[in-house]
Amino acid sequence: MACPMQFICRALRTVGLVLFYYVFSIGITFYNKWLMKDFHFPLFMTLVHLTIIFCFSTLTRSAMQCWTGKPRVTLSWKVYLSKVAPTALATALDIGLSNWSFLFITISLYTMTKSSAVLFILFFSLVFKLEEPNPFLILVVLLIASGLFMFTLKSTQFNLEGFIMVLLASFIGGIRWTLTQVLMQKSELGLQNPIDTMYHLQPLMLLGLFPLFLLNEGLSVSTTEKLFRVSEVSHLFYSLVTLSVGGVLAFGLGFSEFLLVSRTSSLTLSIAGIFKEVCTLLLAVEFMGDKMSTVNWLGFAVCLSGISLHIGLKTYYNKGMAHVGVGNSICNSFTWHS
User: Fold this and answer.
1) The model's pTM
2) Which residues are CB-contacts of 229 (< 8 A; sequence separation ≥ 6)?
3) Cβ neighbours of residue 333 under 8 Å, at least 6 residues apart?
4) What is d(CA 27, CA 159) in angstroms, rounded to the nearest whole number?
5) Distance from the Cα of residue 270 to its chain's centroid
6) What integer pLDDT is reported at residue 242 of this predicted model?
7) What is the rounded distance in angstroms from the CA atom of residue 276 to the CA atom of residue 327?
């Protein structure tokens, strides 16, 4: 009786962790899209989110240090600027452009286009020799690329500006996740725990995104009645609360991903990521009024088959290895668009 009970408990725990991850992953996508309808400052929103993530990661690190009695890793300035800065800049641009695109495109087009990040992740993984080249990767690329083409073909809600933004974010995301994997797998840096990685990334991400914010939104934000020229305190309080909720969701997403990987496996996160994309599209069609034709759905299915093949190949080739990097596993779920 012990074995069946253990299996049931393990299955229930996995389902619970996946649902916990879905709440933050799907929640932040719809929340950011909803917020962008009235608050047209995506880069300022992203800066607020990064600040909140830094505060929460700092508190979490302190709690972990008190619990374990062991000091958390703190990098020297030289290592910090030379090793972490490129990853931080790529991450800031990926997230900033992703959030910016919500001003122009639907959730379904965003979700589908963002899934193309795996193409760029594959490319940069081959460049950095993190991935072994094999002929099946050509099939993966063809499936995902053709699926994306079919999804955007004759789309009635297609917006070129937003599409280019997400595609550029996906390209930078390929660099981001490849550098993140390298960063987290360097044992001498001691950043294997994503909480420590988030703690070290956020300040440089803020600095990297701030000039772009000043150039595009600085004057508008400083004169908007939603923040600095507010007529009623209640309006300011509402703006701060809605921005803070997004920050909490962003931190919760990173934490839930780590929790799911550490308690189950990277494969579980990758598979959960596929079903998350399906759920996101279904919810977008049902509640956000997104329109999808039969060809669009077929393109989505073709793209998912390419992603599934990629996950299957990684699982096969990683069999027998000591571990699969957490950074690499997270990138397969195409998430953390704060």
Assistant:
1) 0.80
2) 223
3) 25, 257, 269, 270, 272, 273, 276
4) 23
5) 13
6) 92
7) 19
